[in-house]
TrEMBL record:
UniProt xrefs under Pfam families: Aminotran_1_2 (PF00155)
Enzyme class: transferase
Superkingdom of origin organism: Bacteria
Family annotation (SUPFAM superfamilies): PLP-dependent transferases
The protein's assembly and partners: Homodimer.
Name of the molecule in the record: 8-amino-7-oxononanoate synthase
Amino acid sequence: MPVEKILQDLKDDHNFRSLPHLKHEGKFVYKEGKKLLNLASNDYLALSYDKELKEEFLSTLKDENLFFSSSSSRSLSGNFEIYEELEDYLKADFKDKEILHFNSGYHLNLSCIAALSSLDKTLFLADKFIHASMIDGLRLNRTNFFRYKHNDLDHLEFLIRKHYEKYENIVILSEALFSMDGDFSDLKALVELKKTYPKIKLYIDEAHSVGCFDKKGLGYAKFLGLENEIDFLVFTFGKAIASMGACMICTKKYKDFFINKARAFIYSTALPPINVAFTLFIFKNMTKFQNKRENLYRLSQNFKNKLKEKKYQILGDCYIVSLILGDNKKALEIAQILEKGGFFAPAIKEPTVPKNTARIRFSLHAGLDQNDLNPILELL
Ligand SMILES: Cc1ncc(COP(=O)(O)O)c(C=O)c1O
């Protein structure tokens, strides 16, 4: 199909993406000169615009980390000491595990899942709503995989039993806190399944939960005390950590495997040391953010309850609150109403979410208070 036709079809479907021109100022963005409260970022702890924090970081930054490029892959000369400092720092809280830093969550999921899928007799069972980066990892090698209905463990167990005898490894792919529906996966139940079916390995993406759970911000699995049961635990640093990058937490055997076989790790210039130093700085300060985590949780429950009182269809267990609107046009209309009222909360449409579940995804953060959100209830 010609490109012109593809673009026209997207427009006809109210599904054409274009980039908004934005200027950022604290928790606000300016769009075409209009000041809007930004409810579309994943800056859950509101650290990205914390000036004091950034100044403190810069004042303690060592010269050896003042590099805006690593100028090479880590496999060659790009492996600055700060990478290992960060990996060692995180490792201290994960018994028997090693840490491997990647340039982004997308790089990590794509290349680690592709690497795992090259192993003989390995089957992937993926929650229907896992992030595109994991799906792309599965597609890269045209791997055999099946998807189970979102958070439906009966369906998952049915698939496990059906395929168990044919495979040596069954890797279950899920997110700790789902990016679009904002709900938790039942990690305890997944760990129980692993005990019943020893061929199972758990691959859990904590992109939206790292920073926000556990006193040291080490994620939802850690908060539940299940971190040692997860074979492949993924943190990303571009959301609550307000930095960039990601890491894989796994055994040394798999760390060595990914260093050798994860192509996005091998064939891409490593992130600048200054960025990695910022990630480490944030983790070292994590215990100070407990108030933020508690405020975020309270605020989210309050906002959700108010929307529910108004009988809206709401999804989300905590700070990702999705208002389900159905078709793309309706979601675009509501996004426009919100924008006129001073809020930046764009419509989320397929393929990011399933067809006919277009929505406004309110991404709440610790820098908000209830008064910031009350006008939304009047606008809807
Ligand atoms: C669940 C999940 N995993 C991975 C990623 C990719 O992470 P990154 O933005 O660091 O590439 C995202 C980003 O949106 C995500 O939501």
